[in-house]
Specification:
Layout lengths: L1 H24 L8 E8 L10 E4 L2 E11 L11 E8 L1 E2 L2 E2 H4 L5 E5 L9 E4 L13 E7 L3 H30 L3 H8 L1 H22 L3 H8 L1 H23 L2 H8 L1 H30 L2 H8 L1 H30 L2 H8 L1 H23 L2 H4 L7
Parallel strand pairs: 1-9, 2-8, 7-9
Antiparallel strand pairs: 1-4, 2-3, 3-4, 5-6, 7-8
């Protein structure tokens, strides 16, 4: 019996030791409660039971089960469902404070070349609500080696296509096609460019030796002396202005002129104020001009006078029209031809009488007087 007891004690001790080791490693935690969550993916991609579940890269549990979902009519619908068993306490706080409704479960791999899979959960924010037991998390897929291979193949194809295009462009340039091909292969262009360089060197040489307008401009000391003289004259003018010499100097430095100008401006401002006052009085109807502009009776009288003038004008127009038609005395005087002839004849006789009177005035001035 002693040997049996010792053997049972050793077996129990080994079992406890194994449980403690497994608990420390995280594979089995008989003394901690679990929070079950669900996540659905389009493809398991090698995910199996016992795979790690991480929160922001920190291990918090394992995958309890991976099962297929029933067929769906939607082609992009999830195909598998993973049941997650995470610790109910994470760093001394409830798991529901870390994992919320805005958290996302992502299927990934611990390394690029490894075949093992894991599920990484992003921590929730204050905008989300705490998750409940058996809640379904939103999912997203990470980059796998197959995705990287596919992307690398696409990149290789694009690089090959780009290389072929560069090869075609290089071939056309070597054959002298296009502007760049002519630029590289055309000997005439090289000769022209070489001649241009030589001419530029010759122009630079002529300028350095003082030949031509540009050469004189750069090398002739007379130009420098003239510029120096002009500068000195300008300095002298500035000095005279500062000292108050000449008309411009007095305008700049004379205090009396400044005072007179200021007085003139003050008077002008006063005149403007008076004009504004007059305009205000006129608008208010004060004074003769104000009454002329604002008096209603004057306006009515003026309107009545204009109406009378219009009436008088109409009457004059009627008289003139009647005279033109030969109505009345004036009309007959204007239109009667017989009257015109009589007047014309009378005018002729009067002219003759005056002429006769001038020739023989005694004939008309002799007075015959008889007493008896």
């Amino acid at each position: 019996m002693k040997e049996i007891r010792v053997g049972l004690f050793i077996v129990i001790g080994l079992a406890v030791l194994i449980l403690l080791i497994l608990n420390a490693s995280g594979d089995i935690s008989p003394f901690s409660s679990k929070l079950n969550l669900r996540a659905r993916f389009a493809n398991a991609d090698g995910l199996r039971s016992g795979a790690e579940v991480r929160l922001a890269g920190v291990r918090i549990g394992t995958v309890d089960a991976v099962r297929l979902l029933p067929p769906s009519e939607e082609p992009n619908a999830p195909k598998i469902e993973a049941v997650l068993a995470v610790d109910s306490q994470i760093d001394g706080r409830p798991a529901t404070d870390r994992i919320r409704t805005d958290s996302t479960a992502q299927l990934g791999s611990p390394s690029i070349l490894g075949s093992d899979k894991l599920i990484n959960i992003t921590p929730g924010t204050a905008l989300g609500n705490p998750v409940a037991a058996n809640s379904e998390l939103r999912t997203s897929t990470g980059s796998t080696i197959a995705d990287l291979t596919s992307s690398g193949k696409d990149l290789t194809d694009r690089l090959n296509s780009l290389t072929e295009r560069f090869t075609q462009i290089t071939r056309k340039i070597n054959e002298g096609q296009g502007t760049l091909g002519r630029f590289v292969n055309d000997e005439a262009f090289y000769n022209n460019l070489n001649a241009t360089v030589r001419e530029s060197q010759e122009v630079i040489r002529l300028i350095r030796t003082g030949q031509g307008s540009a050469g004189r401009f750069l090398n002739d000391p007379t130009l420098y002396n003239n510029v120096t003289d002009i500068s000195e004259q300008l300095q002298a003018v500035a000095t005279d202005l500062r000292r108050g010499r000449g008309t411009a100097g007095k305008l700049l430095t004379d205090e009396a002129l400044y005072n007179e100008t200021r007085t003139t401006i003050t008077r002008l401002n006063s005149s403007i104020d008076e004009i504004n006052t007059i305009v205000a009085d006129v608008r208010a109807g004060r004074g003769t001009a104000g009454k002329l502009l604002t008096d209603e009776a004057l306006y009515n009288d003026t309107r009545a006078a204009v109406a009378r003038f219009n009436t008088t004008t109409e009457r004059i127009d009627a008289i003139v029209a009647g005279a033109q038609r030969g109505e009345g005395t004036v009309g007959k005087l204007l239109t009667e031809e017989q009257l015109y002839n009589n007047v014309n004849q009378l005018s002729g006789e009067s002219v003759k009488l005056l002429y006769d009177f001038r020739q023989n005035p005694r004939k008309y001035l002799t007075i015959k007087f008889e007493l008896f």
